[in-house]
Amino acid sequence: MRFRRRLLFWAPRALGLAFSLFLAVFALDAFSDGQPLFDAVLEFLIHLLPSLVVATVVAVSWRREWIGAVTFAALSLAYAGTTARGHFDWMLIVSGPLLLVSMLFLWNWLNQRRQVLGG
User: Fold this and answer.
1) Is 57 within the bounds of a domain?
2) DSSP of 31-90, one letter per residue?
3) What is the Rg, in whole angstroms, of the alpha carbon atoms belonging to the chain?
4) Which of 24, 30, 9, 23 is CA-nearest to residue 95?
5) In angstroms, rounded to a whole number, what is the distance separating the alpha carbons of residues 18 and 36?
6) Number of structural domains, the chain?
């Protein structure tokens, strides 16, 4: 039982950070156009913003899992409804993991509440 609780605690955090790193890889695309270095670095930093948002949400959700559940679900829906419109594969690759992390944070939060309430 203790292993399950630890796994449930670490899974959304680790997957959230791993997904943040996954998004950061796409920022490297800024250096492929042969543009001046300053412009490429600026574009790189702009492309890192989604990754930084995800990492920030993980940090804020570390002790308040309900925030992670709500925010990751909102990010998933926002991406699916705006950027990925008409691209089911993009939606699956980005919104899917965001929704999974949201569900894991929710599960962890509900499990901890049940333990506190004596269930």
Assistant:
1) yes
2) GSS---HHHHHHHHHHHTHHHHHHHHHHHHHSS-HHHHHHHHHHHHHHHHHTTTTT-HHH
3) 17
4) 23
5) 30
6) 1
What would the pLDDT profile of 49-90 be if each residue is shown by its tens digit?
999 999 999 999 999 999 999 999 999 999 999 987 888 888
Q: Are 106 and 69 in contact (CB under 8 A)?
A: yes
Domain span at 73: 2-22+50-116
Summary mean pLDDT of the chain: 92
Nearest to 65 by CA among 115, 95, 103: 103
Assess if residue 33 is contained within a domain. no
**In-domain check, residue 71:** yes
Q: Is residue 80 part of a domain?
A: yes
What does the pLDDT read at residue 119?
Answer: 58
Question: Tokens 């959700």 sit at which residue?
Answer: 61
pTM of this structure: 0.88
